[in-house]
Amino acid sequence: MKVFSQLKKNLKKDFSNLKTIKVALLGDTATQFLNQALRATGYDIDYNLDIWEADFNQVEGQVFDPTSELYEFEPDVVIIFLSSHKLVARYNKLKPGQSGTMADMQLAQIQNLYESVKSRLKAKVIFYNYQEIDDHVFGNFANKIQSSFLYQLRKLNFMLMEYASNTPDFYICDLSSIQNQVGKQFCFQPSVYINTEMVLSIDILPEVAAKTLDIIAAINGKFKKCLILDLDNTTWGGIIGDDGLENIQIGALGIGKAFTEFQYWVKKLKNRGVILAVCSKNTESIAKEPFEKHPDMVLRLEDIAVFIANWENKVDNIRTIQNILNIGFDSMVFLDDNPFERNIVRDSIPELTIPELPEDPAEYLEYLYPLNLFETVSFSEEDAKRTAQYQIEAQRVVTQQSFTNEKDFLKSLNMLSLVEPFNKFNTPRVAQLSQRSNQFNLRTIRYTEADIESLSKSSDYFTFAFTLEDRFGDNGLICITILKKQTDDTLFIDTWLMSCRVLKRGMENFVLNTLVNSAKEHGYTYLKGEYLPTAKNEMVKNHYKNLGFAEQDGIWILNVNEYENKECYISNK
Amino acid sequence: MEDKEILETVNGIFIDVLDNDDIALTPETTANDVDDWDSLNHIQLVVAIERKFKIRFGSQEIQNWSNIGDMIASIKAKTA
């Protein structure tokens, strides 16, 4: 990671071609350096953070005043940084007997701040939790005294987690975790604090900025979806082809323990929805043997969505994996113990994230944890099923090859789609798809769960969520459209996005048939669509043209009364 | 350490932190003479000097300097 003085050099660079995100930064201590660190870190991941910084200690003044600069600025993201040092100051002033209520009072204040922001802005709020300050007034006994500062601070951090878990647009940036990782001496420099009111040391700024940007990037749909694993000396110790099944290192003994613990971590990622792929220089049957037969293996074949083991070069193999999964290289992480392989792959596919694994496998996890590779802003039950869906996709690819005619293939799939408006059961998945879809996404408008909920209640919109299943299995909810009532005769297609898992199934035709029928049913004549280009959605550039819409000043128009249902092989469920 | 040697090292730190190769400090140089040497960057400079010389300044000390010469005297006293 760059140090602050290196990072600052970014500030002189040209931000004009980068995606702009408006960020408001409010703190109860001096935040000028944090401001610089955030903007400079944003540059390295292609964001132009347009940061408005509140004057020193103006959090309440800005948030509670409806006419403040904060609301005039209309940020996409509001970052609120209330420091532990100011929390101590507040605690110091409490009357005896009130000390035990600090956490409750502070949380109420934070809730007020959040609700006030949300009532006036559509922004996401990022809140730093509290770094621990142990004043040792009670020593270890503080853990038994509810009114101690340490007790109240930890309680507050826990209450913040509870609050965040029920408040979709309230995100916590885990400053406490950063301090635990590197130590308070590294995080906090007393002389800087006394002279400048800055509570973050210059050394820790890049870490804090990076962790904040992780959240901002994830909110904007930029996060990792897939982990590609090498096998020998990455997933287990030793070389399966040379050492044989009995002699690879995995299990409770010696260095085997490091690989077992690594595999448990990977398995948890998989259960969270990260897609696992294997890319190994090996004979396939030999490489699969441990997954099938070794009693100590944590990962099993059913955990791996795409398994590629051969003697071809890894660059081509990773391209194949990318092809099957149909996600961007920038959403994939490749772990390989061999620096030579890493360098070759890095040279050919620079977008791929390739951590420099330490030489000693004992250090793999401690190295990987703080990299925070797998930030996310959503989690739904569908996530856990993702691997099975990609395995099914691999089967479909094989079946497709046996049909010479695409129509026959599509017919043979017996596809069914359930079409429903947004409701409380599909809201988490709808929001998630809105965050994750980059390629098949006409306007790339991101909606959170809270947004989806309010859309579903609004009478200005018609909302549609589509599932798709076939004889191989269920893809789940894979497509969303949102129609906005624009005029008495026109519906505007605010959102049309689809998971790339179901490309080339005729889903577009099915969706358009559905939209047209609904428009007619409600007495509308025109559907209007728009394509907003991004770096990733070129695949749908001609979407409306291909579906028979006519262009008028950059807007695509379809008269539903002249529309004939398009051919498709999907039936309503 | 000689004053001259300290001055050269400090000069290098200024060039690096302020990202400006044209900086040439003398004992008489003040913040007004150097572009971008504002109160904010001053903090960054102080922290970088502390690290380079492996010293710590008192929180009041750094506010009493009027020019580079004072800064060098402080460094010299702590590294002697």
UniProtKB/TrEMBL annotation, chain A:
Residues 22-216 form the BF1531-like N-terminal domain. It comes from the Bacteria. One of its GO terms (molecular function) is hydrolase activity, acting on ester bonds. NCBIfam families: FkbH, HAD-SF-IIIC. This is BF1531-like N-terminal domain-containing protein.
From TrEMBL, chain B:
Residues 1-79 form the Carrier domain. PROSITE patterns: CARRIER. It comes from the Bacteria. This is Acyl carrier protein.
